[in-house]
Amino acid sequence: MRVSTATINQALRNNALELQGEYNKALLQQSSGLASQSLSGLNGGADAKVNLDNQYARSKQLVTHAEQAQLDIETAYATLSSITDLLSDAKTMVASTLSGVSNDASTLVASASSWMQDIADLLNTDLGGRYVFAGSGGTTPAVDLDAADYDPLADATQADGDYYVGKDASSAILVNEGETLEYGVTAADPAFEKALRAFAMLADMDADAADEATIQAAYALLEEAETGVAQLQEKLSTQASRVEGFIADETSHQGMLETALENLQSVDVAEAAARVSEYETLLQASYSALASVTGLSLTDYL
């Protein structure tokens, strides 16, 4: 009889412990809304959660890079607007000199030197250590007017891009496996070279006498430069739209991943509460049965 009682006693204890474990699990689910606090408790969903977490982290990283590209594009566009204003002002002064409104070339010569430096400074725009017009990974200024090989007046009819000391490759972001999206423009673009060459020509003139041929040639270059800058702004606008679209798509994808993770990890709180009540009733019954067998009070187990 003692053996039988011991067997029943142990069985009741094991059952109570098992019920206690399920009760605690349901209680935690009710309070947290999560199926489990660990991967092992996801009933075979651990691999799926790890995969979803990795996808989400990667998507967040892609969006971070895309937002950086978006900022670079916006900064470049605004800088080009400043360059456009500068070119417009320069053309106005050059046109005035050509039309005879101002026969004094000294002001134009002095202004040309200033404009040339202003263009260089704008093209060396620094955005948190990234030089916007210096190409991929450009961490140093894009333009050096004192570069050893740069001499725009050696032959003013020929382009000289040796002022550009940035990277040859364009900046790019990864949008899919093996697929990249290039963005930005570099200071090596012909539009900027023409503007710098035009200003160099004007700055080199005799301040006491206007050289009409030089002024006309410079004016033609400035017109071409202005047109080129406008085209670059259109290019940046297209890039901005593509990057914005990518960010929107990737953000939507993150939302889907978040939903999948929530479905994988979350539980119905109302259902968990019902299980808590059910297990509580079963525990009371189990402890009562155990108390009857052992002769102990139920309060010793609660």
What does this structure look like?
By secondary structure, the chain is mainly alpha-helical. Helix content is 65%, strand content 5%. The chain is built from 6 helices and 4 strands, in the order αααββββααα. The strands form 2 sheets. The protein has a two-stranded antiparallel ribbon with strand order 1-2. α2 (46-98) runs antiparallel to α5 (212-265) and α3 (106-123) runs antiparallel to α4 (190-203). The two termini are 28 Å apart.
Question: Which SSEs are present, and which pair or pack?
Answer:
Blueprint: H1 2-32, H2 46-98, H3 106-123, E1 126-127, E2 130-131, E3 171-176, E4 179-183, H4 190-203, H5 212-265, H6 269-294
Antiparallel strand pairs: 1-2, 3-4
Question: What can be said about this structure in brief?
Answer:
The protein has helices spanning 2-32, 46-98, 106-123, 190-203, 212-265, 269-294; strands spanning 126-127, 130-131, 171-176, 179-183. It is mainly alpha-helical.
Q: Which strand order does the major sheet show?
A: 1-2
Could you tell me the radius of gyration in angstroms? 37 Å
Any idea how many domains?
2
The quaternary organization reads as single chain
Contiguous runs where pLDDT drops below 50 for at least 5 residues: none
SS-based class? mainly alpha
CATH superfamily of the largest domain: f41 fragment of flagellin, N-terminal domain
What are the key terms here?
302 residues, mainly alpha, f41 fragment of flagellin, N-terminal domain, 2 domains, two-stranded antiparallel sheet, two-stranded antiparallel ribbon, 4 strands, rod-shaped
